[in-house]
Amino acid sequence: MSTAPHPPEAIIRFVGIEKRYDLGGEAEVRALRGVDLTVNPGSYVAIMGPSGSGKSTMLNLIGCLDRPTAGSYFLGGTDVSRMPDDELSEARGRMIGFIFQSYNLIAQLTVIENIQVPLLYQGQDTRNFEEHCVKLAELVGLGDRLHHRPNQLSGGQQQRVAIARSLVNDPLLILADEPTGNLDSRTGREVLDLIDRLNVAGKTIVLVTHDDKVATRAHRVLHMKDGLIEREVLNRPLPRTNGEPAVPA
Amino acid sequence: MNPLSFQFLSTVRLGVKSLMLHKLRSVLTMLGIIFGVCSVIAMLAIGEGASYAAQEEIKKLGSENIILRSLKPPDDAKLAGLGRGGALDYGLTYQDGARIQATIPGVRRVLPARIVRENVIFGPNSIPCQVIGTLPFYPEIVGLEVVRGRFLTETDERNTDNVCVLTVGLAQRLFPYQDPLDHSVKVDAFYYRVVGLVRERNLPEHRTQQAAMEGEPLDNNVYIPLATARTRFGEVLVRRSAGGFEAEKVELHELRVQMKSTESVETADPQIKTLLNRFHSKNDYEIIVPLQLLRQAERTKRIFNVVLGSIAAISLLVGGIGIMNIMLATVTERTREIGIRRALGAKRRDITLQFLVETVVLSVGGGLIGVALGIVTPLVVSSLTDMKTIVTLWSVLVAFGISGAVGIVFGLYPAKAAAQLDPIEALRHE
Q1: How would DSSP label each residue in B72-141?
Q2: Alpha-carbon dihedral of residues B171, B173, B175, B176, nearest 10 degrees?
Q3: I need a labelling partner for A190 at 20 to 30 A (CA). Which of A132, A213, B6, B384 fits?
Q4: What is the pTM of this model?
Q5: CB B112 within 8 A of CB B145
Q6: Distance in angstroms (rounded) separating the CA atoms of residues B392 and B49
């Protein structure tokens, strides 16, 4: 990556990011060894790589779940690499939507309540967002399942709830970690179609996968190896940045 | 409603919901607190009731009074018949009363009384009773209430009149059909005209007699003027019993010293002892200081409260440990949920609050149930037994307050532990 000035609208900007894990004593693992990366708004990026290549670490850092040992990370123009825990939590809640491999819905909450959870931690009165949440549920095709609990839903449905949840705060970035890993190929396709639609609507997507078929849907595919981005493949041209909202209100 | 209080409310709702998910576990966890709070309130209520009754009795003796009673000296008991004229001579004397009145500072007046056990007879009715020879101001010191007629007067005393005043209970048994006033009753060999009826409010008097007069109604008293008692009964009393008779010479059976103020009671008590010991070589009287009894009852109650408090503290501590144990297990069980919430933007304090609220809901819920049971239990106890119970507001507040505090204290550690979890680790947790 060049050191040329980046356009201010970059969603993710990694500058020489390093992550080392101290295993006690002399042992140290260098999970990331100076990664530079820029992701522009509206792009769809897939990260691939064998296990141990650092893609999980990368995802944790992008998702503000962890802080780099060295280097800087600008999320939407804000340096989050040295943020204290509380602010990092805040940034996570406001700017990032997570989609996990195992859906990670909260078992005792209904569909609509699960969608509302991120609002709760933004200090919002969820009653003002009732309609918004219902719309999101309808968007992912679960308008008739609002009061079901996760264990009453199929895997594909649960993942769609997770997608609706990831959208509720209107985040800058949606981070998907093997979103189809637990799904059969047909429901997996449906979920990916849904993610595609979000991207078309303007959402920036970063997706981790080891499935080539999944990765082909992205604009850019980053192949990682030994804590570095080994090579980058451009599948299709990047969209022009326009900053339209992902979900038409 | 502002967003903050809404957020808090939804946290509470969430906490209740999580607890409802494991109803049995939650109830079992609460049991410790429930029993702790319930037992504290119930025990304090029973203790309070018992000590209240005791204190009321002592208060009725009069806190500014000192009571002296003649006592048959224990070492002389077997030597009956050796005294003057073959009679056992012991007890308080008129002289004692006069000396106390004259020398002890702060004495208001001294009330002497002679108490003789006799049968009182009217027509075919003969009822065992206590004949009490005393002075006109007896009711004021002992706490008698004149129901009808009058009490004894100075004139009765001066004239050694054969008049008497009956307690209401005795009069009812003696005169089932007539009005007792102005009738004459027979005691021993003499007739006494009934001039009044009194009701005794003096409970302790009853209690002390209870053992001696088993099976007899407690308020069978006949009051006659002291001078009359002296002349009619003499000073040597002979008690006939199977196998012989016993004679004893007692001038006065009781002296009640009324002090001018409660403060002077405690200084007067040793002074009276010193004074009397100079004239009584034998230990033939006892001294009762109601004020001291009251103080002692209060001390006993304080010790009782400390003991109860310790038991309460221990049971609530055990309850608290139970809650902490379960909460730690819950935190482990819900590690993944914690990870999810952290990923979705929850700050550490949000997680702390969530778990703390759950513990507080558990302990306060347990506390409320405990309070309800703690109020009901004494009622059940009083209705099943004769025990008096008093549920005090402070015991309810303290028990409930402690249960809430236990929730916070014992909830803080698990909640902090939950908040300290690394979100990445937590999300990976199976």
Answers
A1: --GGGGGGTT-SGGGSEE-SB-HHHHHHHHHHSTTEEEEEEEEEEEEEEEETTEEEEEEEEEE-TTHHHH
A2: 130
A3: A132
A4: 0.72
A5: no
A6: 10
Chain A residues touching residue B350 (CB < 8 angstroms): 121
Which SS3 state, helix, strand or coil, does residue B28 take?
helix
DSSP class of B228: H
Long-range contacts of B419-423 (CB under 8 A, 24+ apart): B419/B348, B419/B349, B419/B351, B419/B352, B419/B355, B420/B348, B421/B335, B421/B338, B421/B339, B421/B342, B421/B351, B423/A65, B423/B338, B423/B339, B423/B342, B423/B343
Contact yes or no for B7 and A120 at CB 8 A: yes
Interface contact B317, partner A, CB < 8 A: no
| Smallest CA–CA distance from A104 into chain B, residue | B340
Contact A68, A227 (CB under 8 A): no
Residue A6 has pLDDT above 80, yes or no: no
B368-408 pLDDT per residue, tens? 999 999 999 999 988 998 888 889 898 899 888 888 888 89
By three-state DSSP, how is residue B238 classified?
Answer: strand
- The mean pLDDT value for B76-94 works out to 63
| Domains of chain A: residue spans and CATH | 43-64+95-234 (3.40.50.300)
DSSP string, A178-232: STTTTS-HHHHHHHHHHHHHHHHTT-EEEEE-S-HHHHTTSSEEEEEETTEEEEE
Count chain A–chain B contacts defined by CB atoms under 8 A.
Answer: 69
- From chain A, the residues in CB contact with B345 under 8 A are 89-90, 92-94, 118, 121-122, 169
| Sequence spans of domains, chain B | 3-57+296-428, 72-283
Compute, in degrees rounded to 10, the torsion defined by CA atoms A202, A203, A207, A211.
-40
| Amino acid found at B225 | P
CB contact under 8 A, A85 and B348: yes
Instruction: Name the minimum distance, in Å, from the CA of A37 to any CA of chain B.
Output: 22
Three-class secondary structure of residue A6 per DSSP: coil
Nearest to A48 by CA among A222, A176, A229: A222
Query: Residue B1: CB partners within 8 Å, gap ≥ 6?
Result: A125, B9
List chain A residues with CB under 8 Å of B21: 108
- B336 CB near a chain A CB, below 8 Å? yes
> Per-residue pLDDT tens for A57-97?
999 999 999 999 999 999 988 999 999 999 999 999 999 99
The interface predicted TM-score of the complex, written ipTM, equals: 0.90
Is A41 touching B (CB cutoff 8 A)?
no
The reply to whether B24 touches chain A by the CB within 8 Å rule is no
B17 contacts in chain A (CB < 8 Å): 108
Edge-to-edge order in the sheet of strand A28-39: A28-39, A12-22, A70-75, A78-79
| B95 touching chain A per CB within 8 A | no
| Interface contact flag, A85 B10, Cβ < 8 Å | no
Residue A4 touches partner B, C-beta closer than 8 Å: no
- Measured CA distances, B307 to B33, B40, B310, B389, B406 (Å): 19, 11, 5, 18, 19
